[in-house]
Design a protein that fits this description.
alpha/beta; Rossmann fold; nine-stranded mixed sheet
Amino acid sequence: MVNALVLRVEGTNCDEETANALRLAGADTTLAHINDLLKGRQSLEDYQALALPGGFAHGDDIAAGVLLANQMKNLLGADVKAFVEEGKPVIGICNGFQVLVKLGLLPGIEGPMNRQEATLAFNNSGIFHDSWVHLQPQNGNKCFLNKIKSAVYLPVAHAEGRFIADDNVIRRMLDNGQVVFTYLENPNGAMRDIAGICNPQGNVFGLMPHPERFVHKWMHPQWTRGGIPDEGDGLQFFTHLVEYAKKF
């Protein structure tokens, strides 16, 4: 059995959905506040997978994900780095993606938590964007999700989702197979239509859309019209993660 940890703080609001998706995928899932780690009630060593869910961690004060990223780096840095370097899978969704980028785990070209190499800026529209989008998986990506070969349909809900980085960083990501998903309908103006990326080793993955919000057909906006498979497109993100985590 894979033991998965869903980490939350004040302002996280997709933790229950993410935990539910992992349980549906077969993981024994624990939902814990960061204080449980800081006070020794939980330990990353006991888990084979880590999920950082969406929401507004610590109210997204200063900028989205910054305060949680600083907590993880300064108070849990050694444990997080060891978890990643062991090869265990990490998924960050929306706000969790923002945390991973600002923590320096993504894109992580110069190594885990070396420095921040990219950011997720305000949408080009200047407003919060809430819609459904199609994502195209990129051939040759190194992520544990590289078995997903067909376009997926997922909801997005964010104000700071525009992936931007220096041209050199983008080029190295493309060369390394770190761009995992791109938007077919870009909702935020992200460079190269980037929706989801992984680290060079392929075990840390982040994306702005919400796979946990489409794991059953009735979560699709047009499910009553029929023809929607029972399993939502998002569930495969978690089944592949759990399968990958079994090796640990």
